[in-house]
Specification:
By secondary structure, this protein is of the alpha+beta class. Strand 12 and strand 13 form a beta hairpin. It has a six-stranded mixed beta sheet.
């Protein structure tokens, strides 16, 4: 699975809307995820089964910590509005404030102030998750950014957003357990081995 940044060949004096282009792409290619980051379209095909299994497994510790239905919720594929005009991203998973419904910015994108944590499970677009989105989420001041790096079999935890990057970036390997910051609203510990194993293809 891969992602592609799309730049549109419009003349400088010809007005256009990246949001409209994104909507057209999604209409013509059902199942594709389209994000606008840094003024560029990022188009990603539907996730494969291992990606989905990893995400399902990741939901379990958040739900076990009661991060659902109260002051906080754990959600999948909810858009976060980003600084930069039309920019928005769609993280695989997020921990958000319970009143997020009251904070729509545009369409189905929500104010970043509602996001306590965003999480991405990499596919072919792993460079975007580990580079492009680091700056985007930091600029939006999302307190915690977690990346399940399936390509290199590691877990990244980034905290302390400052000046378009994260002040702290810790990398964890299989065999480790990782306690996420209490700022997300509950005590959540992730088993790196279990997460990485869930994201591997199953072969008969």
């Amino acid at each position: 699975m891969s992602a592609a940044s799309v730049e549109q060949p419009f003349a400088d004096d010809e007005p256009f809307s990246l949001t409209a282009i994104a909507a057209e792409i999604m209409e013509r290619h059902p199942g594709y995820r389209v994000e606008i980051i840094g003024g560029h379209l990022l188009v990603t095909p539907s996730p494969d089964a291992p990606h989905a299994r990893a995400l399902t497994g990741l939901m379990r510790p958040f739900l076990a910590a009661d991060l659902y239905g109260g002051e906080a919720d754990v959600v999948q594929n909810v858009s976060i509005w980003l600084p930069g005009g039309e920019d928005y991203a769609i993280p695989d998973l997020a921990v958000v404030d319970g009143d997020i419904d009251d904070h729509v910015v545009e369409g189905t994108a929500y104010d970043p102030v509602c996001f306590r944590l965003v999480l991405e499970v990499t596919s072919g677009n792993w460079k975007d998750d580990l580079k492009t989105k680091v700056g985007a989420y930091a600029q939006a001041k999302v307190p915690v950014y977690v990346v399940v790096d399936r390509k290199h079999q590691r877990l990244h935890v980034l905290t302390e957003p400052i000046e378009g990057t994260y002040g702290t970036h810790r990398i964890h390997s299989p065999g480790e357990t990782v306690a996420l910051p209490d700022s997300i609203g509950a005590k959540v510990t992730l088993d790196v081995s279990a997460i990485i194993e869930a994201g591997r293809p199953r072969r008969s």
